[in-house]
Amino acid sequence: MLIEFSAANFRSVRERQTLSLTKAKGDELLEKNTFQVKAANDFSLLRSAVLYGANASGKTNFFRALQIMKRVVVESASSQQRGDPLPVSSFLLSEKTKDKPSEFEAVFIVEGVRYQYGFSATTERIHEEWLLAYPRGRAQRWFGREWDGKREKYNWEFGGHLLGEKQVWQKSTRDNALFLSTAVQLNSHQLQPIYDWFKETLRMGDVGGWGLGYSATLCEKEDKDKILNFLKAADLGIEDVKVEANPFDPDSLPNDMPQGLKEQIAKEMKDKKILDIRTIHKTVEGKDVAFDIDEESDGTQRLFGFAGPWIDCLENGYVLFIDELHDSLHPKLVRFLVDLFNSGVSNPKNAQLVFTTHETSILSQDVFRRDQIWFCEKTADYSTELYPLTDFSPRKGRENLEISYLSGRYGAVPYVKSLINSFGIGAS
Length: 428
Description:
Layout lengths: L1 E7 L8 E4 L9 H4 E6 L1 E6 L1 E6 L5 H17 L26 E9 L2 E9 L4 E9 L5 E9 L4 E6 L7 H7 L6 H7 L6 H10 E4 L7 H7 L4 H10 L6 E8 L11 H10 L4 E10 L5 E5 L5 H19 L2 E4 L8 H11 L10 E5 L16 E6 L5 E5 L12 H6 L22
Parallel strand pairs: 5-16, 5-17, 11-15, 15-16
Antiparallel strand pairs: 1-2, 1-6, 3-4, 6-7, 7-8, 8-9, 9-10, 12-13, 13-14, 17-18
């Protein structure tokens, strides 16, 4: 479970910004939208959070910060080579920050233990890295490293609670790799659950979704009924899904494609299968009619692509971040997807969903608690600021959040200027 994530000096995020999934005061929607977890101390966490903001306010950059953190954890010790640049980018609109390291930190719970892990980095090296564990409520500093630019070496610190070949792992850690990742690669069983949380539990999606392949693959297995139940609950009129895996046919490539490119594609696709996905609908007379998935609407295709990963997250208690959930989806389908997380019935493993959207019809106290709603705004220096709705103390159960947001009460809305004078057109 995720408790909070923070980022600083990454792209448009200049000052440290933190998104928290800790339950605040208030007893609204307790059974649906919150859950308790024991980790030495009891924690009350949120099943979902939504982030609103104008275009170019930095919502995607904040999500990208977590995506980069995950990528560096998973890849720095295995895929990165010595000297390879790290995929970070500082806030470039200030001389004070452009050459400083970007910083990332996550607080989360794995197997009943709370961890606080983070690092800072430039493209050249990891500057700091730290891990604190709270197995009994009190902080245990398992390790820390900090780059000393004057001495051109790291200062290392290891706590007595971290077991294993610490000196071997330290010597094996490259400047552009994380100690956490290196130690796990060298068989640190104690750090493995933390690494696995980033690799397996934390899931990142975007406006493109996941494509159709994963859901289609599930339809070939015993999970097909789960996909069908998902689609039927969304009221798409789909009665069945047929999936066939066919060999790739080189003759299907366009005639005007260069022959060399054709041969290259044919070689790469030689042993691969092409999934033929067909949705089954009923005629008014009750007969089955098959449609190619490409004949379905963009929204239906996207929801089909969501079905498999959504079910996977709910069944395994994953933490899902997804950018622009509303894209190509009807407002009721957006609420349908959110409600699946905000329910102990459909979400018994306490999976968590964090998403951005411009869909304001779900900006309601019937859907979210006040502590589940966050805003993102561009400040005067063009940096990103993140803040919760609770900063404004909206009246419980009485304030219309959608109207208040669109009227500008909470900020995070675009300020649109008139173009009439810019085009030399007089007002009529």
